[in-house]
Prior knowledge:
By secondary structure, the protein is mainly alpha-helical. The chain is built from four helices and no strands.
Amino acid sequence: RETNLRTLGKILWDTEKFDLAEKYLTEFLNQLPSNDPSLSSIYDDLSKVALQAGDYEKSVRWSKKAFEFRNSNALLHTLNINVSDDAICKFINIKDII
Length: 98
């Protein structure tokens, strides 16, 4: 079974090898598409690694990225729901006419 970079990063994080953990988590992050839903949890992982390594500024930066990603995806999700609702309403109106 193949171990992905995130798993390797978490193992290194557990063994307090924070620099290597950050390296592998970041590498994994860079392999994902920009809209991958797991991005926010990886940003959170990177924030926690930085915090445990004592780099508070970096931890805050990763936390902000996670927050911004969640908010932007929540907006997109809301927009998609509104588009779906609009399509459903049009379908219902057409059905009532027929």
